[in-house]
Amino acid sequence: MMNGTWKVDARDGKLAMAHIYVAFVALALGGLAGLLQVLVRSGKFELPAGISYYTILTTHGVLLGLVLTTFFIIGFQFAAVSRTAGTLSDRVRFWGWVGFWLMTIGTAITAFYILIGEASVLYTFYAPLQAHAGFYIGLTLVVVGSWISGFAMFAHYAKWKKAHPGQVSPLLTFMSVVNMILWLICSLGVAATVLFQFIPWSLGYVDRINVLVSRTLFWYFGHPLVYFWLLPAYMIWYAIIPKIIGGKMFSDSLARMSFILFLILSIPVGFHHQLVEPGIDPVWKYLQVVLTFMVVIPSLMTAFSMFATFEMYGRSKGATGLFGWLRKLPWGDARFFAPFVGMLFFIPAGAGGLVNASHQLNQVVHNTIWVTGHFHLTLATTVVLTFFGAAYWLIPHLTGRVMTKAMNRLAIIQTIVWSIGMIFMSSAMHFAGLLGAPRRSAFSTYGDAPQALEWIPYQIAQAVGGTILFIGIILVLIIVTNLAFFAPKGETEFPVAEVAEQAERTPLVFENWTLWIGIAVVLILIAYTVPFIDMIQNAPPGSKGFKLW
Amino acid sequence: MKTQLNTNTPKTKVEKEPALKGTLASVLFLGFFLIFTWVSVYFLFLNRL
Ligand code: HEM
Ligand SMILES: [Cu+2]
């Protein structure tokens, strides 16, 4: 195998752990906000001291959707490239720390303005809602910090390539590079809208903002953002889980191919979040929906590959029958169990995604709590349970400890608690959404409208599920604290899978970055140029800022 | 039967495809579930037109 070192260097481990600490602090605070939300929406509880529901919801969305994810991902990827492409150079590590501190300071600034109630604009900060400029400036620092870390990873990859001419790079390093390229290309959109629209507007240099342009730039970023969350989970599924179960990867080429397809296809599709937006010609919405459905291909490739890995392993252990291989999997190992449950939840999550992306069906669910139910499956279960599963070996690996049997047991229980809570909360959200219940709103009976009264039982179920989920958050925090500070000292493996013997050799073409980035850029230009010019040339007068909270 | 074709080939060259029946069944079920969900909401949409 081409794996460099077996153990992540202690100095690189510190850098990764710094990110992971911030991520779990965000989970604790964001989870508390989530609990408050479900309680408010049940109608049985009101926020004390005149705190706005939207302050809480903004906290929740920013901390969990933006902070937890970005920090965990960058920390995990630093560990992954260090493990597979060798210890970081001092320069790369230095810039990694610069990125970390910029992101952390930015997060602190943004969180400050949210918590003092000056930025209750939700994590999507749609214009014409206007937050204090500090909110946008903090977010800018987070993005700039993440770019610096991204370039640090690119530099590390380039060094490896130089030292190994003509060789295929280690899979986890390759995947980290793909994910950071995706992030870089898409976050240019959010940087553009924040720097050129929101900051001047919130500082009062300009009076009005072009709302449609700002939303379009946001979703140019916002859809690939979900793939930026998802790809690290796929890294764990493709390149780590096979090792944990004691098997082999089904195919290295298939994994790389699916990552390249995600890179190409996940950006020119932002309009599927704007299907009911006026001012965009339906032709362009149609084109982007078609591209959206192409993402089904790498998704099903991933599903196939995972099933195949499990079945090949089970059969090598003598499993027979159609599904006998299922019984051979290591159900008692939380490093496997948590991500596996995450994979199962991706089935209903993917099905819901196809509904969201279809224009007509989108009208049934648009802006209803169905959508919230959907991404609590994708992000808050599939991705998050996979990250938890990774934390169970990554943290002790980096802190020089081992997970005890008791903690492993607790982690299994945590996964089950999370699943039960999420089944209640997410199903309730899906059904209430189909009955028209809006997302992003506190409790109301809307003047005792019969339709709104129908939602109440679901909102109670949501609160029950959400409370169980909150218990799940407490459990994972106990485990993580234990692994970071209290678990017995020892050596824990950073598992990296090998490829099955039957698999084909990986061709070098997957690392032809000019080709893939070129295709991605061409598709972006095709999907966005004409409608974007249209938005600017035929723009209505812009909007003043509103503070509705 | 033409099994004789195989008899001369040395063991190492036998390219055996892994048996992945369970995988096939699983992805078929997955596809069915995706279509079922989509069609269900589609009928809801039609009902509300
Ligand atoms: C205790 C666990 C959790 C509970 C009870 C919970 C509850 C909720 C509720 C009720 C909403 C929607 C409220 C509304 O639209 O009015 C919501 C929104 C959201 N949740 Fe969670 N959630 C939890 C965990 C998570 C996790 C782990 C993540 C991500 C990793 C997450 C990400 C989000 C995001 C991004 C939103 C959207 C915010 C918005 O619409 O602006 N949640 N959550
Ligand atoms: Cu999307």
UniProtKB/TrEMBL annotation, chain A:
Membrane topology type: Multi-pass membrane protein
Family as reported in the entry's similarity comment: Belongs to the heme-copper respiratory oxidase family.
Main location: membrane
GO biological process: aerobic respiration
SUPFAM superfamilies given in the database record: Cytochrome c oxidase subunit I-like
Assigned keywords, A-Z: Electron transport, Heme, Iron, Membrane, Metal-binding, Oxidoreductase, Respiratory chain, Transmembrane, Transmembrane helix, Transport
Organism field: Anoxybacillus ayderensis
One GO molecular-function entry: cytochrome-c oxidase activity
Ranges where the Cytochrome oxidase subunit I profile domain occurs: 1-549
Listed name of the protein: Cytochrome c oxidase subunit 1
Transmembrane parts of this sequence: 20-40, 60-82, 94-116, 136-158, 170-199, 219-241, 253-271, 283-307, 336-355, 375-395, 416-436, 456-480, 513-533
Pfam families: COX1
EC number in record: 1.9.3.1
Localisation: Membrane
Domain of life of the native organism: Bacteria
One GO CC term on file: membrane
TrEMBL record, chain B:
UniProt superkingdom: Bacteria
Matching InterPro entries: Cyt_c_oxidase_su2a
Spans traversing the lipid bilayer: 24-45
Pfam families: CoxIIa
Keywords from the UniProt entry: Membrane, Transmembrane, Transmembrane helix
Organism: Anoxybacillus mongoliensis
Lineage per the UniProt record: Bacteria, Bacillati, Bacillota, Bacilli, Bacillales
Protein name as annotated: Subunit I/II of b(O/a)3-type cytochrome C oxidase
UniProt key word Membrane: yes
